[in-house]
């Protein structure tokens, strides 16, 4: 096997990777800023998931808000993004970056404003449980499964997660009592819920 064929083979492998080449003329300050924004977006996404569990909203709405910026910004900013970080990266990496930065910020802004600026007036409601299950417990305690129930709320299913200590109560429950308040964008916020 000649040296030339090995180089051609390695070059072909490099072309199939997500990062095609690194150029030394990237802007290190902007690259650091984008890295910080990316990880901040991941933190906000985790916080948003916690808010989502307390918000009664169909999953397609947050997913649309989160994924759309990546679809729109990737083709528009592909070349500019490559110049900033000094890499010629695959479009999939750009999509993930835009989704985790811009999408996470927009989604958190939407969900947090609905949650934190909700109306103070609460309403009590009762729903029949349509399905029960359990989720793995926290790390190190996977066997302490957290029970959940699903209810039909305004035409879609909403999952309510309980603590491990409520397992026996959930197994015997037929109904869930909710105390909700209206969010600023019209999506109800769970103040309290209990199984009966």
Describe the structure.
With 196 residues, the protein is of the alpha+beta class. Helix content is 49%, strand content 26%. It has a 5-stranded antiparallel β-sheet.
Give the strand content.
25-35%
Count of discrete alpha- or pi-helical segments spanning 4 or more residues: 5
Radius of gyration: 23 Å
> Which strand order does the major sheet show?
5-4-3-6-7
The helicity comes to 40-55%
Average per-residue pLDDT, rounded, comes to 83
How many domains make up the coordinates?
A: 2
Tally of strands: 7
Low-confidence stretches: none
Describe the largest sheet.
5 strands, antiparallel
**Structural category:** alpha+beta
How far the N terminus sits from the C terminus, by CA atoms, comes to 74 Å
Rough shape? Answer: elongated
Multimer state: single chain
Series of secondary-structure elements, N-terminal to C-terminal: HEHHEHEEEHEE
Keywords: Membrane, Transmembrane, Transmembrane helix
Transmembrane segments: 30-47, 59-79, 91-117
Set down the secondary structure blueprint.
Blueprint (H helix, E strand, L loop, with lengths): L2 H13 L3 E4 L5 H26 L6 H26 L1 E3 L1 H26 L5 E14 L10 E8 L2 E6 L5 H6 L2 E8 L5 E8 L1
Antiparallel strand pairs: 1-2, 3-4, 3-6, 4-5, 6-7
Helix pairs in contact: 2-4, 3-4
Keywords: Membrane, Transmembrane, Transmembrane helix
